[in-house]
Amino acid sequence: MYALQASIAACHAIAETPEKTNxxxxxxxxxxxxxISPSPVVELNRAVAISMVY
Length: 54
What we know:
Layout: H1 2-14, H2 23-36, H3 40-53
Helix pairs in contact: 1-2, 2-3
């Protein structure tokens, strides 16, 4: 769980701008996190990531 959260944070940290954030990767990481540790907050963040992809 912590590795997934750290990976999400790293994606945000290395992005030069919000537009250059790897939202596809973040979305996939939230998919995995929602299986391991489901919660309303994870689902909300997952929905935001998906909306940024599309």
